From TrEMBL:
<feature type="domain" description="Acyl-coenzyme A oxidase N-terminal">
    <location>
        <begin position="62"/>
        <end position="146"/>
    </location>
</feature>
<protein>
    <recommendedName>
        <fullName>Acyl-coenzyme A oxidase</fullName>
    </recommendedName>
</protein>
<feature type="binding site">
    <location>
        <position position="152"/>
    </location>
    <ligand>
        <name>FAD</name>
    </ligand>
</feature>
<feature type="domain" description="Acyl-CoA oxidase C-terminal">
    <location>
        <begin position="494"/>
        <end position="670"/>
    </location>
</feature>
<dbReference type="GO" id="GO:0005504">
    <property type="term" value="F:fatty acid binding"/>
</dbReference>
<dbReference type="InterPro" id="IPR037069">
    <property type="entry name" value="AcylCoA_DH/ox_N_sf"/>
</dbReference>
<keyword id="KW-0285">Flavoprotein</keyword>
<dbReference type="GO" id="GO:0071949">
    <property type="term" value="F:FAD binding"/>
</dbReference>
<dbReference type="Pfam" id="PF14749">
    <property type="entry name" value="Acyl-CoA_ox_N"/>
</dbReference>
<dbReference type="InterPro" id="IPR009100">
    <property type="entry name" value="AcylCoA_DH/oxidase_NM_dom_sf"/>
</dbReference>
<dbReference type="Pfam" id="PF22924">
    <property type="entry name" value="ACOX_C_alpha1"/>
</dbReference>
<dbReference type="GO" id="GO:0001676">
    <property type="term" value="P:long-chain fatty acid metabolic process"/>
</dbReference>
<dbReference type="InterPro" id="IPR029320">
    <property type="entry name" value="Acyl-CoA_ox_N"/>
</dbReference>
<dbReference type="GO" id="GO:0005777">
    <property type="term" value="C:peroxisome"/>
</dbReference>
<dbReference type="GO" id="GO:0033540">
    <property type="term" value="P:fatty acid beta-oxidation using acyl-CoA oxidase"/>
</dbReference>
<feature type="binding site">
    <location>
        <position position="191"/>
    </location>
    <ligand>
        <name>FAD</name>
    </ligand>
</feature>
<keyword id="KW-0443">Lipid metabolism</keyword>
Amino acid sequence: MESIDYLAEERKKAEFNVDEMKIVWAGSRRAFEVSDYISKLVADDPDLSFIFIECHRGIQGFSKEERTMLPRKELFKNTLRKSAYSWKHIIDHQLSEEEAERLRYFVDEPAFIDSHLGVFIPAIKGQGTKEQLKKWLPLAYKMQIIGCYAQTELGHGSNVQGLETTATFDPRTDEFVIHSPTLTSSKWWPGGLGKVSTHAIVYARLITDGKDHGINGFIVQLRSLEDHKPLPGITVGDIGTKFGNGAYNTMDNGVLRFDHVRIPRDQMLMRVAQVTKDGKYVQSDVPRQLLYESMVYTRQALVTYASGALSRAVCIATRYSAVRRQFGSQNGGQEIQVIDYKTQQSRLFPLLASAYAFRFVGEWLKWFYTDVTQRLQANDFSTLPELHATTAGIKSLTTTATADGIEECRKLCGGHGYLCSSGLPELYAVYVPACTFEGDNVVLLLQVARFLMKTVSQLSSGKKPTGTIAYMGKIEHLMQCRSDVEQAKDWLKPSAILEAFEARATRMSVACAQSLSKFDNPEEGFQELAPDLVEAALAHCQLIVVSKFIEKLQQDIPGEGIKQQLEVLCCIYALFLLHKHHGDFLVTGYITSKQGLFANEQLRALYTQVRPNAVSLADAFNHTDHFLGSILGRYDGNVYPKLYEAAWKDPLNESDVPDGFDEYIRPLLKQQLQTARL
Ligand SMILES: CCCCC/C=C/C(=O)SCCNC(=O)CCNC(=O)[C@H](O)C(C)(C)COP(=O)(O)OP(=O)(O)OC[C@H]1O[C@@H](n2cnc3c(N)ncnc32)[C@H](O)[C@@H]1OP(=O)(O)O
Ligand SMILES: Cc1cc2nc3c(=O)[nH]c(=O)nc-3n(C[C@H](O)[C@H](O)[C@H](O)COP(=O)(O)OP(=O)(O)OC[C@H]3O[C@@H](n4cnc5c(N)ncnc54)[C@H](O)[C@@H]3O)c2cc1C
């Protein structure tokens, strides 16, 4: 009972309107209402919130917290059930696209339906011609076909140009022959491929008349629409159990091989290039990079998902840190809440601030993506390189920080964070592949670095940088300016923060460009300097996140105390980065050690300011207990009785004497008894 009081007391301390903050977090009142309604709908419907398993006792229901105890085969079947049930709900209730996306999100189990709606359909949209969209999208939208995105192979993932699968045009039959020439050309990883998809977008080398035209996408049917058996020439299956219990194992990531499988010519996605009936290869007037467009789409979406995942971990760790007490009891009084330890604050509050920062940069990135795609429709491709660099970089930054942040939250919860019932181990296991899929995070930062080096090299030719790289236009100033911070509170000025991040990013990029210029072979130089280039790319991406947070604060944000809280969080985010990367700011000569110490002093003061609001700032994420799936993060803070209760549900506790006792323990004990008698 006591723990319930702890959180109630915490909530009384809030200096802002939590309901208004929920709207800021969701992005709009409408987005909040949709999320709020759908999350409760999922939590309250046992068919969506529970896992039902057939066992010797009949059908048994398991809560989300118990998911990690269940065998994969049963979990997978249950995911199929949930997906079918969700789809029926979407159709029966005529849910909008936004509501349908929210429904899948709150069901919170990776499933084939995510690949179908999140990657397969966008790939057709991005790379298909009008006729192809007309033919395939209605089938996909009605789920009359189920698709996946089959790009990665056993031998190549990052190096897309190195893929080996071939699509050879046969003009005699007007068909492509899809073939896997080697073991390493087996498609490997696509989600939804292993057991469910009927179709795939397959990336293969396009060959006409003996000439290799590089990679292109093809729509290939894999399984019979009658009995779901693989079609002739196709070998397909699941690649095996993945990291963690439960977690990503509800997804059937698959392996796929082709043995001279024939598909009609019009199943080549032909927006970027076409092959005519007589086998002529024709390149459209759109850039070839549009072949990669669906990756750009998914990368931008992953940024908002990062803020969602981080906010869950932070919500659990914040609530639990307010409930948990250790040391400091005076005269038999209560011990100290661990959230009051400065070390706990200095680890937790930057993550709280990061969740908000990633939310806002995700919002902006969605806008930027939409803006660029509209320009692409009008054949304006000028902003595509910036979109590619930005989505790649921000995806990399936010997913790495989120994966690390979830693990930090686990540690912030001490021993209990290691229990599956805390929700954190599974959240980590399910989240961490985001650092790899849709582009390995280091590979993506190297793409950002290429964009930066190109920008720097073009500065001397008078090309004016725009958008996220516009700051480089002030290169002369940024290369020689010095921070004018004279006391800790000067670091609260957005202009002081912004100039620090701009100067650091510019100087790191310029230093890399100067080092690169010393190499006769630029590619060799790029490989040699890759670690420095990755750091320069990260500095650029951090600047974007900081500047988008500052821009958000320049908007009209109504609601009691909202802006003040966001200002505190923005400064925490920026000054925490400044503290963490202190070396960069010092080495590039923008700040002195003393100014670095001022930043740290200010950071400590900001932690004190955010402390009374911490639980309410976590409440503003509006996560239901079902979605959190965590005993430590329960809204009511009733942690200990529920942890105690949950322990008894573990399969090991089904009997007092464990299976195996007679074979392995009794003989040991007997042996000891005999020894004792001797
Ligand atoms: C719901 C969520 C479920 C998630 C499920 C997961 C799905 C997946 O994981 S799908 C598979 C994802 N795979 C990847 O992300 C692979 C990563 N690799 C790549 O993206 C590329 O191979 C590369 C970018 C790392 C390299 O491309 P490549 O063509 O070999 O090389 P260059 O570096 O020479 O680039 C040429 C040129 O193209 C520009 N560019 C590269 N990518 C894009 C893009 N997506 N959009 C626009 N432009 C792009 C690049 O900047 C170069 O430009 P220039 O310097 O101007 O020539
Ligand atoms: C859960 C999950 C789901 C996935 N879903 C799909 C899907 O639906 N469809 C699909 O097609 N694929 C999918 N993938 C595959 C995924 O996109 C690739 O695994 C990813 O792109 C990384 O490629 P890789 O595995 O080849 O890594 P590698 O490139 O082999 O990376 C291995 C290491 O090498 C480093 N490295 C590689 N190249 C360079 C370089 N140029 N410079 C410096 N370092 C380098 C990397 O940083 C990394 O440390 C999925 C993967 C996972 C884990």
